[in-house]
């Protein structure tokens, strides 16, 4: 039993929700500016969005603080926007395909959550809390599992790349404040507490890896001394480089610019004026 203080709960929960609502925005801005999502796992965003769907249903059914009810919906929506960016920049979907898929998924998610909320309330009226607990624990599991593909990306690249450090700093702050808010309720919500502190701990681990393994956030540098391309198709020599990304401009039929990833020796992101969009190509 805890000392109930509605004002303290409201202030802390509102502050935590405010941080969490904007958590994904730095990542969206970073991906837009760099025109790349390399190093950011789309599964991280997809699983976080799925987790928010279940957690949103849970917090509404549990009648938690209004600010906490708003948070998972805003967070999940922004996660889906970041996922759509991954599809556009890394999987080379067209803008129409990415936006159309995003809107379709959000419509399905809205229908699913509405049905879930009324179903959970119906279960409570019948005296069972099992469906409600399932939604709570399952959302926690999805949130934690979402970190696994991101850690794999870090392991594969041997560095923290493509993700916004601000995202994880803001996420930790929001989770900590929301966790403190739970202690001012009459009854502690264990599921919510595990979710908040678990995510904050994994966020902190990524920040530690950011500084221990290194990171690659430097802008491209220009190289102009490449030999001209020949033949109907442009051929670019693989460059052995160290340090930051390097921008390669070759004389090709479409005057493309491509960015070279030194760690893998693979030409990744490029902009082709002929098509008017960014693309990714791999050269042997």
From TrEMBL:
The keyword Transmembrane helix applies. InterPro entries: LAAT-1, PQ-loop_rpt. It is a multi-pass membrane protein. The chain crosses the membrane at residues 12-29, 41-61, 102-122, 134-152, 164-184, 190-213. It is found in: Membrane. Keywords: Membrane, Transmembrane, Transmembrane helix. Pfam families: PQ-loop. GO terms for cellular component: membrane. This is PQ loop repeat-domain-containing protein. It comes from Dioszegia hungarica.
